[in-house]
Design goal:
Helix content: 55-70%
Radius of gyration: 60 Å
Shape: elongated
Structural class: alpha/beta
Strand order of the largest sheet: 5-6-2-3-4-1-7
Number of helices: 9
Largest sheet: 7 strands, mixed
Strand content: 5-15%
Order of helices and strands: HEEEEHEEEHHHHHHH
């Protein structure tokens, strides 16, 4: 009876231990070997310090796999990182109310090819402040520079392009800044600064500059005085009076303009111009008659001149008449 009790206790202990071991396997993910995994690979040009085998691979923050191996490619001094992606972490879209199912290996590769064309890249990220790193699969910034083409892995394993991490870009930028600072010729810069200071000192000591500054000060004082005089002369009352006079002048100009317009309209300039043109045509037509009249007037003047001369020589001829001169006999 005691023997059977001990066997029962031993069997119970084994059963409980097996159940506890199964629970531990489930809790700590030790049953991952039953899930379907697909191999992928990426490469980095930067240091992977802090990345260890077994580190997580995340897709936009969701753990989907682990790093299976880290090696060096001697042909290009690139760091090759092999990864295993757990397909149970990726499911298809639900259709018609059917629960989404785990995607197949072919569907995974098709999905990844589409997303890589949209900018999906692998990069190193820090896992908190521990110093350890993991691989993050996320989309690159469309505004960032184009990817530098790395040598593609050609061994039949699906390749995911990578991009430099934020720390690598920061380190590269700091290195470039330090290199530019180191390339500065401080001796030449110091000489140029000293020359500029000497020129500035000579310019400041130039007597012409001093006279110009004095003249500027005098001109400024005169301008200030002029402004004060103007301010004192043009009081608000005077400005109002001046404004009123300007308004009155404008009104008078307006009235004068209206009167001129009315006078021009009353003068009938168009009709007068037409009559003047008709008179000019008539004058040109009577030009010959005018010339004949002038000729006759000239003859009359000659006759009057001869009459006056005759009366002057012989006043009695006004009674007796003009003597007719006889022609000499031959």
């Amino acid at each position: 009876m005691q023997m059977e009790t001990e066997k029962f206790k031993l069997g119970l202990f084994v059963t409980v231990s097996f159940i506890l071991i199964c629970v531990l396997f489930i809790v700590f993910g030790l049953f991952d070997f039953v899930d379907t995994k697909v191999p992928t690979v990426t490469q980095f040009q930067e240091s992977v310090q802090g990345l260890e085998t077994g580190a997580l691979v995340k897709y936009r923050g969701v753990p989907i796999g682990k790093v299976s191996d880290i090696t060096i490619t001697t042909s290009g001094n690139l760091i090759r990182v092999d990864m295993e992606i757990n397909l149970s972490k990726m499911r298809s879209e639900s259709v018609g109310g059917i629960r989404p199912k785990t995607i197949t290996e072919e569907e995974f590769y098709q999905h990844m090819e589409r997303e890589i064309k949209r900018g999906l890249r692998a990069r190193l990220e820090f896992n908190g402040i521990s110093g350890f790193k993991y691989i993050e699969l996320d989309y690159r910034d469309p505004e960032s520079p184009p990817d530098k083409v790395l040598e593609r892995v050609d061994d039949g394993i699906f390749y995911i392009p990578s991009e430099p991490s934020m720390m690598a870009g920061l380190r590269s930028g700091v290195t470039e800044v330090i290199a530019k600072i180191a390339s500065i010729d401080y001796k030449l810069l110091s000489e140029k600064v000293e020359a500029v200071l000497n020129n500035t000192q000579a310019l400041i000591s130039d007597p012409h500059l001093k006279r110009m500054l004095q003249n500027s000060e005098q001109l400024s004082d005169q301008l200030t005085t002029t402004v004060k005089n103007l301010n004192s002369s043009f009081t608000p009352e005077k400005l109002d009076q001046l404004t009123d006079k300007m308004v009155q002048s404008l009104e008078q100009i307006k009235i004068l303009t209206e009167r001129i317009d009315q006078t021009v309209a009353d003068a009938k300039v168009a009709d007068t111009s037409r009559e003047f043109r008709e008179a000019a045509v008539a004058f040109r037509g009577s030009e010959k008659s005018f010339k004949d009249t002038l000729a006759k007037f000239n003859d009359t003047m000659d006759a009057m001149s001869e009459l006056i001369k005759t009366l002057d020589d012989n006043p009695s001829s006004l009674i007796s008449g003009k003597k007719v001169e006889k022609s000499p006999q031959k």
